[in-house]
Amino acid sequence: MAEDNIVQKIKRWKPMSKRPIGRPKKRWEDEVLEDIKSINIRNWKKVAQNRDSWNKVDEQARTLYRLQRLMRGRRRRRRR
User: Fold this and answer.
1) What is the domain extent for residue 54?
2) Which of 3, 18, 33, 72 holds its CA 20 to 30 A away from the CA of 24?
């Protein structure tokens, strides 16, 4: 019976493939947390519980994203 137990099978399992070389890819959550840090939001979970304050944070993040896109576009134009 112990051999049929899924937990025992998982413990004994050996992966056949290797992980890709290099740094792991960023997750969506990593990007969001990085954005929250860039606009200096502390206790973001508490802020998110208040709809009005979270809407302000959302607008700051959107503005930041628009500015980054604008700056990338200007850099590309200068290089040409």
Assistant:
1) 47-80
2) 72
Which tens digit of pLDDT belongs to each residue from 9-36? 888 888 787 777 888 778 888 888 887 8
The secondary structure of residue 4, as a DSSP letter, is G
Structure tokens at 30: 């990593």
* pTM score over 0.85: no
Identify whether 12 is part of a domain. Answer: no
Residue 32 lies in a domain: no
* CA separation for the pair 67, 74 (Å, rounded): 11
Query: Taking Cα atoms as reference points, which of 80, 45, 42, 41 lies closest to residue 64?
Result: 41
Q: Six-digit token pair at 43?
A: 């206790």
3-state secondary structure at position 15? coil
28 within a domain of the structure (yes/no): no
